[in-house]
Amino acid sequence: MALIYYFIVTIVDTEIKLRVAIWTMIFFMTIVAGMGILQAHGTDITGMGMSWASDKKVWQIRGIGNFDNPNDLAYSVVLIVPFAAGLFTQWGKIFRQITGALLMMISIYCIYLTRSRGGILSLAACLAFWFYFRLSNKSLKRVGWLLALIGVVAAVTIQASGYKDDASAMGRVEAWVAGMEMFSSHPLIGTGKNQFMEHHKRDSHNSFVEAGAELGLVGLYAYIGVLYSTMFFLLKSASENAGTDDEQRMYVNGFLGYVASYCVASLFSSRTYDLVILLIIALVSANSRLYMAKSMDGPLAPAYEITLWNKKVVLLTLLTLVLWKLFLIQVY
Fold first, then answer.
1. What does pLDDT average to in each consecutive run of 10 residues of the chain (332 residues)?
2. How many helices (H) and strands (E) does the chain have?
3. DSSP secondary structure string, 229-264?
4. What sign does the CA torsion over 279, 281, 284, 290 have?
5. What is the DSSP letter of 205?
6. Is the pTM of this model over 0.70?
7. By the number of CB atoms within 10 A of the CB, which of 76, 92, 211, 310 ranks highest?
8. Which residues on adjacent β-strands are paired with residue 53?
9. d(CA 160, CA 323)
């Protein structure tokens, strides 16, 4: 996976290549979404068949390979949404608006057909963050932060109080307890990649728990660090390009919407080693590299100092462990 990252960062060295890479991903994800929709209407191109969810009493569409799980299909198709929204809101450019509208309809309908609660949550988070980053009014942004904070507190309170009465939810909590035990027994480097189910009967259903249990403190720090640095570069680019470069803003807001939705969805799904987010992080790195080369004198001069040791990432890692432990104390 590291080779894929370095290959993309090295090869994508012009803005044209970056745009081709982005829209190639969007194109193929749209094909995946389209095949899922056809599956629901009786044309199963992949031959995988729909999946019956006994707990929800519904049929769920699914793809093939990395998308053979309805949840994974939904999470991946969300990638289309923020970029399609960027096209749709380019007022006066009819072809782009029509293309954006079609992409939005295909992706949202596909996510609906997966019947994935996590997918719907990821879609909602993606749209919410995309709208927030697109706003230029600071007062509206403050209101957005306040509403988001109230929503998070309310959601956590409701979830924590109702977990003990929900058998499915308690199954997840038991997995998180098992993850904490794995982390406690192997605190530095964890139990090893893909070893969670060797120590517990079900998946972790949380990317941060999975990273802590399988990769230990070192791996959890690295995982959070990658997400932090990706968001850092995107937010920096968004603030410096505000109101100046509409094309760049469209791509940056698209990346921001998807990465933010990934972080939210990772609280309820095991996506630590997800290939789609790896490709997006590689493209973000390529975009940051191009942006730095354009904004500074000299070829590809570094605009920011990046070190392996970052105090903010350390604090975020410790905060993750504390919240993980406190949540288990509260509900288990």
1. 86 92 96 96 89 85 90 94 93 90 96 92 90 76 70 57 58 90 94 92 92 96 94 84 70 93 90 94 90 60 61 94 90 72
2. 13, 2
3. HHHHHHHHHHHHSTTT-HHHHHHHHHHHHHHHHHHH
4. negative
5. S
6. yes
7. 211
8. 58
9. 13
